[in-house]
Amino acid sequence: MKKNKANEAFKILIKEINALVVGLNEEGVQALRAGDHKKALETIKEAGRVSDFLSKVKDIQKEWAKLFSKKRGVARKAGIRKIKTKSIIRLPGDLYTSEKEFRKPILESLVELGGRAKKSDVLKKIELKMKNIFKKFDCKPLPSIPHSHRWQISAQSCRNKLLQEGFIKNDSPRGIWEISEKGRKWLEDK
Prior knowledge:
This protein is mostly helical.
């Protein structure tokens, strides 16, 4: 289990409750300024109840974090790996375009787009370049990622390998793909 999703949910919940407390405090201050002491007192009491609830949520979050870390520690000591809940059926390689085939089109697309571009623009360019070589399942979604076509996932996976190999810059802003000098040199040699 790489990511503690419950802890992420706790963070969101705590953030929302904090926002509610801040809103109630502001509402109480406005009521005091307006001279509505009854409303101010009610708002302060409500803010107090929400603050108490927030403390309980934080305590539960801490308890969960301890439990989660213990579970992971026990699993590691016992040599237990993550249990797969779904069986994954891999398609034969001849039914979809391999990641390697995206290397040159990705780098060419980046050069044609001025050396750097948004991921979506690069993917559009790649699709135009490769649409005639796509295989049977390239334009179908993966069961695990139904909003993307298989070829898009393969292209992004190839981009990650190019990034690791230094053909694409790793200090570009999020969502921007940028060719490196090493990538340009590789492309010239092909």
